[in-house]
Design a protein that fits this description.
With 130 residues, the chain is mainly alpha-helical. It has one domain: Orthogonal Bundle (Arc Repressor Mutant, subunit A), CATH 1.10.10. Helices cover 63% and strands 5% of the residues. The protein has eight helices and two strands; from the N terminus they run αααααααββα. The protein has helices at residues 2-10, 17-24, 28-38, 43-57, 66-72, 78-89, 93-103, 121-129, and strands at residues 109-111, 114-116. The protein has a two-stranded antiparallel sheet. Helix 1 (2-10) packs antiparallel against helix 2, helix 2 packs across helix 3 and helix 4 (43-57) packs across helix 6 (78-89). The longest helix has 15 residues, at 43-57. The protein is elongated and about 45 Å long.
């Protein structure tokens, strides 16, 4: 199980679940059950989250297209990336990119693959009113 998690994490969620199962010598259904029991989520869901995390923490170059970001993060196409952004963040990729660029001069920072520094002007204004 630890070997599967390490491979999934190292690939940023792009390794196929069947490939993980073959590498560990157990069936894909069994692997899904083990992930759910030990981590709390199925392996496919974790892979989805890891791809999303990679997409939001990639350095945002102004000339980099969303299609390029999608390809770099293991999405099948830009529409696949957009569906995950909407499902996991409730925002489009462009909206989230705008938040990260507005929050911190030069964009949001990443620490150990985690996005930091997304604070919108609306949140700051709300905090000052209370």
């Amino acid at each position: 199980m630890a070997q599967s998690w390490d491979r999934l994490l190292a690939s940023h969620g792009t390794v196929a679940i069947n490939e993980l199962a073959e590498a560990t010598g157990c069936g894909s259904r069994r692997l899904q059950v083990l992930f759910r029991e030990q981590i709390g989520l199925p392996a496919k869901t974790l892979a989805r989250i890891l791809r999303f995390q990679r997409a939001i923490t990639l350095p945002t170059a102004t000339k980099q297209t969303l299609a390029h970001t999608a390809a770099a993060c293991g999405y099948h196409d830009q529409a696949h990336l957009a569906r995950d952004f909407h499902a996991l963040a409730g925002l489009t990729p462009t909206q989230l990119r705008g938040l990260t660029l507005d929050a911190v001069p030069g964009g949001a920072a990443t620490t150990n693959g985690r996005l930091t520094g997304i604070i919108t002007k609306q949140v700051i204004a709300t905090d000052h009113q209370t």
